[in-house]
Design brief:
Layout: H1 3-14, E1 18-24, E2 30-35, H2 43-60, E3 67-70, H3 75-90, E4 95-104, E5 110-114, E6 122-126, H4 134-146, E7 150-159, H5 171-179, E8 182-188, H6 189-196, E9 200-201, E10 204-205, H7 209-222
Parallel strand pairs: 3-4, 3-6, 6-7, 7-8
Antiparallel strand pairs: 1-2, 4-5, 9-10
Helix pairs in contact: 2-3
């Protein structure tokens, strides 16, 4: 595993973004872990977060795209800090764009924040995490209604490696099959477990045998096919 991925996993734990316990997800699933990108709240945290995304995007997709699209609401700051990080790390100017939940009918009218989308734009979607693919189902039509663009891919911070909405494939694989673009992550849950299991962080073992057992049981029920979990 690349060193920046290991750093990112520790960063999620240190920032109280990745937690272990018992959580009910938006999908209704009962999960032994939860990731909440809304817990990144300081300038230093957001700066680092943008840099991790920028490095993963550079390594996975390259930088031959024009716009970072961050779906409302959590995608908005992600698109901004990552665009800044790409500029600082790689000298590439990428426009940011996000949607509003409600269309604005005065002043800066419309559904978009930031840059407008133009015909021919190459767009990369950026999100925190995708469990079932429902958010992308809402986001893709919004983007394609604005202009004739090429959606080059999706980058999330964590691949939960779970079944998608309609099959035993992972949500990210399902997105690729349904929409025709790559869906990637900074790290996978398998990488998280492998790195954190019985590892002491700030004097505390975050993921012990009991927690690992709960995660294994969860993936027996919800784990995606073909990912060799456990």
């Amino acid at each position: 595993m690349e060193s920046y991925k290991e750093e990112f996993i520790s960063f999620m734990v240190d920032s109280n973004v990745l937690k272990f316990g018992e959580f009910t997800l938006k999908s209704g699933r009962k999960s032994p872990f939860f990731m909440n990108a809304g817990a990144y709240v300081t300038g230093a945290q957001l700066k680092k977060l943008g840099e991790y995304y920028a490095r993963a995007i550079h390594d996975t997709f390259g930088l031959e795209f024009d716009v970072l699209f961050g779906p409302a609401y959590k995608g908005i700051p992600l698109s901004v800090v990552t665009a800044v990080a790409i500029s600082e790390l790689y000298g590439r100017e990428i426009r940011y764009c996000s949607n509003r939940k409600e269309i604005k009918d005065h002043g800066d009218k419309g559904i978009l924040l930031g840059s407008k989308l133009r015909d021919g734009d190459r767009v990369l979607i950026i999100e925190d995490v995708t469990t079932s693919g429902k958010s992308i189902e809402e986001t893709v039509p919004i983007i394609r209604e604005q202009a004739d663009v090429d959606i080059v891919g999706l980058m999330v911070s964590l691949n939960r490696m779970e079944k998608g909405q309609d099959s035993d494939q992972s949500a990210l694989d399902e997105i690729k099959e349904r929409y025709g673009f790559e869906a990637q992550s900074i790290v996978t849950m398998k990488e998280v477990v492998e790195f954190l299991y019985n590892r002491s962080i700030d004097g505390e073992v975050i993921l012990n045998r009991e927690t690992k057992k709960a995660i294994d049981e969860y993936y027996k029920e919800y784990g995606a096919a073909g990912l060799n979990w456990g």
